[in-house]
Amino acid sequence: MAAADMTTEDYPMEIHEYLVAFNDSIGAVDEMLNKMMSVPRSELLQKIDPLEQAKLDLVSAYTLNSLFWVYLTTQGVNPKEHAVKGELERIRSYMNRIKEMTDRKKAARLDKGAAKRFIQHALCDPKEQKDTPAKKRSKSKHK
Question: How far apart are CA 48 and CA 57, in angstroms?
Answer without folding.
Answer: 12
